[in-house]
Write a structure and sequence with these properties.
mainly beta, twelve-stranded antiparallel beta barrel, elongated
């Protein structure tokens, strides 16, 4: 869905000197960007010019989400927040409860005949931000991010370290992408691709997973999805692959136990738990055993993205899986430690180990490269 949410969160009355009038801004479609707008009406004309980096939304956990834009016009202030996966949960929680939320100003706001000192908005707006309307959230926000909930946009490229032939350089590419077909308030339909490929033809971790149709139901604390598609391992679709249908339940874990921000203003995502059950029908260029012709698999995955300090990040994902093809419990995990070079490009070192999802073959890799995604942005613009 190509739309922008201008969701007005209207602040209640603050005090006599800075009274607030109840207002409403309807959701508006403007391109692909998603924003949440907090509108505050004062009883005095604002004379100052705002610096967006000086304004933020405070949340109960103590984190802050900084404004992407602030607009002062006459007696109205509009604090605009660019919505992205790293602050998604902050606003999603505002649908259910607003206790502990406030607007903070780190600079003076100059009125006609007086000023509001830094920190003054916090006192006046704490616990006075009403809830975001749930139906608006579903219509303008959840459906747009439904695809990325299962397929968080990702692009990684680099080289493989520690190979036996020191004169040979092996390059790799990892890609996750998705796109919407259709959506309603409660239902989203989209396509997705998840793949890894390298210049080593015998790289056992190479795979491609194509899901032309995914149907996802959105509800309060998670998503239930049904995916159908085709998958292959390092040998490629012409030699080996399988058709698959799987049911996936994804929820955000209510605990966020690790804080490595060291006091910097970076919002943290809770871990995501994914549980899936799938049925597969396989094919190959040679005779395929009965266990591989049809198989059933169940797995549980935890992904945890941790911002470190001001410019570092740690991405981790671990999976336990049982397959009727192997008749055993297998595992795989992936850890990336990186440095944010700017708002979207990261230099990273990645270690992968375990049994590949499609072929169940074991391998381990140490990789060096760069990544582009939207999961670990700094909170400041």
């Amino acid at each position: 869905m190509k739309s922008t949410l201008f969701c007005s969160v209207v602040l209640a009355s603050v005090c006599a000197a800075y009274a607030v009038e109840v207002t409403n801004i309807s959701p508006t479609a403007v391109g692909r960007k998603k924003t949440v707008v907090v509108a505050v009406d004062f009883d005095k004309s604002i004379q100052s010019t705002p610096d967006a980096s000086k304004y933020s939304l405070g949340v109960p956990s103590g984190e802050r989400v900084f404004c992407s834009e602030v607009v002062f016009r006459d007696k109205r202030a509009r604090f605009i927040f660019q919505l992205n996966p790293h602050n998604f949960v902050v606003f999603e929680n505002l649908v259910g409860g607003s206790a502990g939320y406030f607007i903070s100003n780190d600079e003076q706001i100059v009125f006609e005949d007086e000023t509001l000192e830094p920190g003054g908005l916090e006192e006046k707006t704490l616990d006075r931000i009403p809830l975001i309307v749930g139906e608006d959230w579903k219509k303008y926000i959840l459906d747009e991010y439904a695809a990325r909930y299962l397929f968080p946009r990702l692009f990684k490229v680099g080289t493989q370290l520690g190979i036996e032939d020191s004169t040979r350089t092996v390059y790799f590419l990892e890609l996750i992408e998705s796109g919407m077909w259709a959506n309603t308030n409660a239902l989203s339909m989209f396509w997705g691709i998840n793949g890894r490929w390298s210049t080593d033809r015998e790289d056992r971790m190479n795979h491609v997973q194509l899901y032309p149709l995914t149907t996802m139901f959105n509800y309060g604390f998670g998503r239930l999805a049904f995916l159908s598609g085709v998958e292959t391992g390092y040998r490629g679709f012409s030699k080996e692959g399988r058709g698959t249908f799987k049911t996936v339940l994804q929820v955000r874990v209510p605990y966020n136990p690790i804080d490595l921000t060291l006091g910097t203003s970076r919002a943290r995502l809770n871990p995501v738990l994914t549980v899936d059950l799938r049925g597969n029908l396989g094919w190959g260029d040679t005779k395929v055993s009965k266990d591989r012709q049809s198989s059933v698999e169940a797995s549980a995955t935890v992904r945890y993205d941790i911002p470190v300090g001001k410019n570092y990040y740690l991405q981790s994902e671990g999976t336990g899986e049982y397959s009727s093809e192997t008749h055993e419990l297998q595992y795989r995990y992936d850890v990336s430690l990186g440095y944010i070079a700017d708002g979207s490009i990261r230099i990273m070192a990645q270690y992968k180990q375990g049994h590949q999802e499609v072929t169940h073959m074991f391998d381990k890799k140490l990789l060096l490269g760069f990544a582009m995604d939207v999961l670990n942005q700094t909170a400041a613009p």
